[in-house]
Amino acid sequence: MELAVYNIKGNKTARTVELNEDIFAIEPNDHAIFLDVKQYLANKRQGTHKTKERGEVKGSTRKLRRQKGTGFARVGDIKSPIFRGGGRVFGPKPRDYSFKVNKKVKKLARKSALSYKVKDNNFLVLEDFSMEAPKTSKFMEILKNFNLENKKALVVLPESNRGIILSARNIPKTTVAQATDLNTFMILNADHLLVCESSVKQVEDILLKK
Predict the structure, then answer these.
(1) 24, 186, 199, 205 - which has most CB atoms within 10 Å?
(2) Which parts of the chain sit beneath pLDDT 70?
(3) Contact at 8 Å (CB) between 88 and 80?
(4) What is the pTM of this model?
(5) Where does residue 146 rank: exposed (0-12), middle (13-18), buried (19+ CB within 10 A)?
(6) How many domains does the chain have?
């Protein structure tokens, strides 16, 4: 599968890049995508939520009324969950939400997400570029050349470039990532992928590695 290589002005160059069909043209596996995205979001949860139970609420432990003979239901102390200001029953406790997903499933999920983007024509290959100094207006021009100024775009770089990262930092809906850090959630969360030419080779090496 061949795709044209574009320059940062939005024009096609004379070059093309060959995409590996074992990565960019597979039959997507939705369940693998679900598991990988679910794990990514779960791992981001802090899990520090906590409510006080009746043993942790401040208050007297005196029994409010005698057990029998009052005509009312039996109650304990003022910290009982049935009273306002009492402890909470079965409230959340600190916990770890992370879980394991096999490496092969995670790779399949990334391949599936990339295949969706290529299939939907939301995958563009850019010739390698860099920015010596941060310039948001210059980076914005690149996005406008592809009509992506108001869309969620993910720019995939072969290596970290401080000028590009700082230039895109204040642009809404735009994310910059290295090819080695690419994950399923990032791919699917973007409407369009702008992938540098050298990044394509890196992604293929990572996903074909056994």
Answers:
(1) 199
(2) 210
(3) no
(4) 0.83
(5) middle
(6) 2
Give the domain extent around 77.
51-91
Q: Are residues 60 and 23 in the same domain?
A: no
Ramachandran category for residue 121: left, alpha or beta (phi over 0 → left; psi -120 to 50 → alpha)? left
Residue 2: its pLDDT value, please?
87
- Radius of gyration for the chain, computed over Cα atoms and rounded to the nearest angstrom: 27
The residue written with tokens 């406790």 in the block is 93
User: Cα 204 to the chain's mean position, in Å?
Assistant: 21
CA nearest 128: which of 158, 153, 84?
158
What tens digit of pLDDT does each residue of 25-42 get?
A: 999 999 999 999 999 999
C-alpha closest to that of 195 among 112, 136, 124: 124
Residues 23 and 80 in one domain: no
CATH number at residue 23: 3.40.1370.10
DSSP 88-113: PTT------------HHHHHHHHHHH
CA-CA distance, 196 to 52, in Å (whole number)?
A: 52
